[in-house]
Write the structure tokens for this entry.
Amino acid sequence: MGSLRAVIDRVEGGLAVLLVGEDEVQLDLPLTCLPAGVQEGSILTVNFEEDRVETLDVREKMQRRIDRLRRRGKE
């Protein structure tokens, strides 16, 4: 997908209201999640990246829990 452009539309309390992409989808994020010094009108580049190792780890943990619950249900 690449990157998306976002503009900080406004700051409300500790939240930044971002307008993301061409459709300007609203996304509210805590200011602490954004680079220091950003303010209303700042343009950001947003990139999403899957952490495949963490994803696999979480899936394996979930499967082990499901397996344990199924074994308990058969007792």
Notes: Residues 3-73 form a domain with the SH3 type barrels. fold (CATH 2.30.30).
